């Protein structure tokens, strides 16, 4: 009986030591940062809606590292130095590449990720006059999918997308011809809880919804003084 107790104590001590060894592992200190872009221009997305995957090879056990993309197309991840594979996932507002990209992380590393969107928004202007937000932009088709609509989104914070907004207007007509600018007008309301018309400023951005794609392509976010 005493021998069994000794064995149990030795086993418990070994577990404690092993746990301490795991706790004493160094945390990753290198930062991998970059921008998801098309021809050098950042691609606007829904914050947390799109992501990349990183895989580190050379270990017996490996698992994916999810890397979320910010609204402005930037991303960051704290990693150990080493060789990684980066995967661009499906469901984003760009064509899904079939290949992965090699990333070498050594200290703070910058790695931009090229993508090819189905559509882009360029030359956008968003202005305010007499309680009306007016937007204009060019929408360019790059992929083969059809466009569903163009949206003007307005909100009270800089977190702004199709899920987080205070007012929005959706344009569905005239999208068969993308050779001319697309204009959307939005009249600010003054109802609870946001009282947009009574504010000193609002935030606005444009979005293109693509047929069969979960995520939209977004313009940058603009702060509009009222």
- Average of the residue pLDDT scores: 88
**Strands, count:** 17
Number of domains: 2
Structural class: mainly beta
Q: Name the CATH architecture of the largest domain.
A: Sandwich
- Straight-line distance between termini: 82 Å
Helix content: under 10%
Short description, anyone?
Helix content is 10%, strand content 44%.
Features:
17 strands, disordered N terminus, five-stranded antiparallel sheet, 226 residues, five-stranded mixed sheet, Immunoglobulin-like, 1 helix, mainly beta, globular, 2 domains
Structure explained in plain terms:
The protein is mainly beta. It has two domains: 30-114, Carboxypeptidase-like, regulatory domain (Immunoglobulin-like), CATH 2.60.40.1120; 119-225, Immunoglobulin-like. Helices cover 10% and strands 44% of the residues. Strands 1, 2, 5, 8 and 9 form a five-stranded mixed β-sheet that branches. A hairpin with a 2-residue loop joins β10 (119-129) and β11 (132-141). The radius of gyration is 24 Å and the shape is globular.
Write the layout of secondary structure elements.
Blueprint: H1 2-23, E1 30-38, E2 41-42, E3 51-56, E4 65-68, E5 74-79, E6 82-88, E7 101-105, E8 109-110, E9 113-114, E10 119-129, E11 132-141, E12 147-155, E13 167-171, E14 182-187, E15 201-210, E16 217-218, E17 222-225
Parallel strand pairs: 1-8, 1-9
Antiparallel strand pairs: 1-2, 1-5, 3-4, 3-6, 6-7, 10-11, 11-14, 12-13, 12-15, 15-16, 15-17
